């Protein structure tokens, strides 16, 4: 998984981001001002930077060039929510621009898009005797191909991308079936049962009581 630098001067926000990144399998480091960010950049390799704009030392706009020179894609995370600020950030070369406050699932989805766009993702997920090749849409169990429908694979991909996070049935419908899908949450339950059976993941895809489901991996 990717190694991500979080440059955010508010410690509580930074810690929350780090916690969520770690839960889904990323490794991450923190910097709390512009000078710390530069030192981290000098001494470490990163696949992505989540960068606040309003920082002590050097602001995010000035830091952006240094990350670009190092070939590290940047997503701005900021409270600056005007259209001019968004346009400026994107025109300067940021890959994306997310306004605080934001939902964790939205952040993770956008991180995944940027990493894929820059060829920095590991498209093979392995757990126990199951291997999922996300790019190829192939699922293997004990080196035997497992046939999943297109919808089952999409649901599995959503669970993998948000592993260890509890997702409501409504959110799974939204992410795996699309915003315009008109259906009942029972549809999610049926597909979850099929995935559990095909992958022998009864104890991996957990039911979260009165809420939804979570793909629980170590």
TrEMBL record:
Query: Which SMART domains does the record associate with it?
Result: REC (SM00448), Trans_reg_C (SM00862)
Q: Does Transcription regulation show up as a keyword for this record?
A: yes
Q: Single Gene Ontology BP term?
A: regulation of DNA-templated transcription
Keyword hit for DNA-binding: yes
DNA-binding interval(s): 122-217
InterPro entries named in the record: CheY-like_superfamily (IPR011006), OmpR/PhoB-type_DNA-bd (IPR001867), Sig_transdc_resp-reg_C-effctor (IPR016032), Sig_transdc_resp-reg_receiver (IPR001789), WalR-like (IPR039420), WH-like_DNA-bd_sf (IPR036388)
Q: Response regulatory domain spans which residues?
A: 3-115
Recorded GO molecular functions are: phosphorelay response regulator activity; transcription cis-regulatory region binding
* Reported function: May play the central regulatory role in sporulation. It may be an element of the effector pathway responsible for the activation of sporulation genes in response to nutritional stress. Spo0A may act in concert with spo0H (a sigma factor) to control the expression of some genes that are critical to the sporulation process.
What is the protein name given in its UniProt record? Stage 0 sporulation protein A homolog
A Pfam cross-reference name? Trans_reg_C
* Organism of origin: Mobilisporobacter senegalensis
């Amino acid at each position: 998984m990717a190694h991500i630098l979080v440059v955010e001067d508010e410690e509580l926000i930074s810690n929350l981001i780090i916690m969520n990144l770690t839960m889904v399998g990323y490794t991450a480091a923190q910097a709390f001002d512009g000078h710390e960010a530069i030192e981290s950049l000098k001494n470490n390799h990163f696949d992505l930077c989540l960068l606040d704009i309003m920082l002590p030392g050097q602001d995010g706009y000035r830091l952006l060039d240094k990350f670009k020179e190092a070939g590290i894609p940047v997503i701005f995370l900021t409270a600056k929510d005007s259209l001019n600020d968004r346009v400026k950030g994107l025109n300067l070369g940021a890959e994306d621009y997310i306004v605080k406050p934001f939902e964790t699932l939205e952040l993770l989805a956008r991180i995944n898009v940027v990493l894929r766009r820059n060829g920095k993702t590991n498209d093979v997920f392995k757990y126990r005797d199951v291997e999922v090749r996300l790019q190829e849409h192939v699922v293997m169990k004990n080196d035997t191909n497992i046939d999943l429908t297109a919808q089952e694979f999409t649901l599995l991909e959503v669970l993998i991308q948000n592993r260890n996070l509890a997702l409501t049935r409504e959110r799974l419908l939204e992410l795996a079936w699309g915003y315009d899908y008109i259906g009942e949450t029972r549809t999610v339950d049926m597909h979850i049962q099929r995935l559990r059976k095909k992958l022998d993941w009864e104890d991996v895809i957990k039911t979260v009581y009165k809420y939804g489901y979570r793909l629980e991996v170590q």
